[in-house]
Amino acid sequence: MKLSQKEFDRIVKRAIGRISPEIRQHLKNVVISVRERPTRKMLQEMGLQPDELLLGVYRGVSLIKRSVTSPPLFPDTIILFQEPLEEACETKEKLEKQIEITVVHEVAHFVGISEERLEELGYG
């Protein structure tokens, strides 16, 4: 599946709207960005091989590691990778669900939500 940037952005917005309010509230000060694919450097930083799929990544300082004396220099960002997401999904409905799951997992990295809590919320 290959979508235009505009169509992909619409699906991202719908997917974010599906996220539970408990998690979505943490997106207020987070930039969500879409790139075609991760760079080699990003894959290396994540410990992945060039042929492995990376659907999204969180960039920033998690709430757990923040300090009042040294605030983050850049805004927290979730980067979604369009081509790997399209590659992983056969339909727009599956793509929307996968984007929702990806964003939720990246938010979990940001706020320190446990895998157990994600499972309770239906994102395990």
Number of strands: 3
Overall shape: it is globular
End-to-end Cα distance: 25 Å
Q: How many whole angstroms does the radius of gyration measure?
A: 15 Å
List unreliable stretches of 5+ residues. none
Label the CATH architecture: 2-Layer Sandwich
CATH topology: Zincin-like
What count of domains describes the coordinates? 1
Helical content class? 40-55%
Strand percentage lies at 5-15%
**Widest beta sheet: strand line-up:** 1-3-2
SSE ordering:
HHEHEEHHH
CATH class: Alpha Beta
- Helix segment tally: 6
Report the average pLDDT across residues.
88
Structural class: alpha+beta
Biggest sheet layout = 3 strands, mixed
Describe this structure in words.
By secondary structure, this protein is an alpha+beta fold. The chain has a single domain (5-65, 73-120), classed as Zincin-like, CATH 3.30.2010. It is 46% helix and 13% strand. The protein contains 6 helices and 3 strands; from the N terminus they run ααβαββααα. It has helices spanning 5-18, 21-24, 40-45, 82-88, 92-111, 115-120, and strands at 30-35, 56-59, 76-81. Strands 1-3-2 form a 3-stranded mixed β-sheet. The longest helix is centred in the C-terminal third of the chain and has 20 residues, at 92-111. The model has no long low-confidence stretch (mean pLDDT 88).
Short description:
This protein is an alpha+beta fold and about 120 residues long. It has six helices and three strands, in the order H-H-E-H-E-E-H-H-H.
SSE layout and pairings?
Blueprint: H1 5-18, H2 21-24, E1 30-35, H3 40-45, E2 56-59, E3 76-81, H4 82-88, H5 92-111, H6 115-120
Parallel strand pairs: 1-3
Antiparallel strand pairs: 2-3
